[in-house]
Amino acid sequence: MPRFAANLSMMFTEVPFLDRFDAAAQAGFTAVEFLFPYEHPAEAVGERLKRNGLTQALFNLPPGDWNAGEKGFAALPSRFSDLKAGLETALPYAKATGVKRLHLMAGIANRGERVAIEAFYKSVAWAAEFFAPHGIDIVLEPINARNVPGYFLNDFGFARDLIQELRLPNLKLQFDIYHCQIIHGDVTMRLREMMPIIGHIQIASVPSRNEPDGEELNYPFLFEELDRLGYAGFVGCEYNPRGKTTDGLAWFKPYAGVKP
Prior knowledge:
This protein has 8 helices and 8 strands. By secondary structure, the protein is an alpha/beta fold. It has an 8-stranded parallel barrel, surrounded by 4 helices. Helix 3 runs parallel beside helix 4 (114-131). The protein starts with a strand and ends in a 23-residue tail after the last strand. The model has no long low-confidence stretch (mean pLDDT 97).
């Protein structure tokens, strides 16, 4: 049975960020993820996790100026020093939360330019090697061009090839089913092909990015497929609730309380 992690950047936004840990636990989640924790002290985030018996499934490395449209530095040759500083910033949060996987964002760059590709390879290898002694995986997530126009990593095949070429044991694929359906379709066959390199999965309905309970994808089938494929990682609920978060959790009731 899949192990679901509530995404606290998108769910339970009816309450302040630190209170969302309590709300997620009360709703039956045993794990959480979020985009960024850096506006709050690492110790405060860790305390909320511990208080509620929650596992931290994932969060993102610093992306730069998010409000100005930055989406990471990894494919930007001129920002390598910022990337290295971001790894140092994230480390105390990784230690405080016990997280085992961190998402490295590629940034807005042209994948047709060799300098961007070279910068991305260099950044990915650096980040993976930096966190390897801490037992932490780096995950790479292809993101569709509709949600983030110009994002460098917008192809699952490119991500797969890079991971297989670098052969770093703590480098994995973040397989967001929502993004895969929009970019490529054929989600089930891609899950079957890429499962050996998948380190994290995320879900949302397509095309609305709401609760995973309808529209284009048959999520009950996909959840069973994850079990058939032996996926033992987390499934992050990275969706925008249609209304109050708890009013849209009927899909989750069969899975509530499943332990990591």
